[in-house]
Specification:
Layout: H1 22-72, E1 81-85, E2 99-107, E3 119-127, E4 135-142
Antiparallel strand pairs: 1-2, 2-3, 3-4
């Protein structure tokens, strides 16, 4: 048989054994919850920033893709065009489009800083449900002799 502790009346040796009271546990949980609530708010801000950053990156990639296509197009075939695109920059039907891209081509010496008739200023204007406002990206395309 296990001897009882004379101070507490419980079985076993409890010398020096301490525990937490219910009040101490309640206070520590209160302090912990006060510290965690602001951190939860920071998480939502962090996720929002991450989502915005991903959106900006996708839009930039789509614009770079369109500008690269324009730079690869023979100079004489460069013209103003409108494309309906998905989030990856692929051309789609109007029902699936989340981005409207307008390619604007200005040929001649007045269109670019090079002052050459053999260059064109090409700009891509992106707007739609996947774009906040309207974003415009530009590049100069040289006539390399189609």
């Amino acid at each position: 048989m296990v001897p009882k502790n004379p101070d507490t009346g419980h079985a076993g040796n409890f010398q020096g054994a301490g525990g937490f009271s219910l009040v101490e546990i309640a206070i520590s949980l209160g302090i912990l919850s006060v510290a965690i609530i602001p951190l939860m708010g920071l998480l939502s801000v962090g996720f929002s920033t991450m989502r915005d950053s991903q959106s900006e990156m996708r839009i930039t990639i789509v614009a770079q893709k369109l500008l690269a296509e324009a730079q690869m197009t023979p100079f004489t075939q460069l013209k103003n065009q409108t494309y309906l695109l998905d989030l990856d920059g692929n051309r789609v039907s109007s029902l699936d489009a989340v981005i409207e891209a307008r390619l604007n081509v200005e040929k001649g010496s007045a269109a670019n800083f090079l002052g050459s008739a053999n260059a064109a200023q090409v700009s891509v204007s992106l707007k739609g449900t996947a774009v906040t406002g309207e974003r415009i990206f530009s590049a100069t395309v040289a006539n390399l002799g189609d």
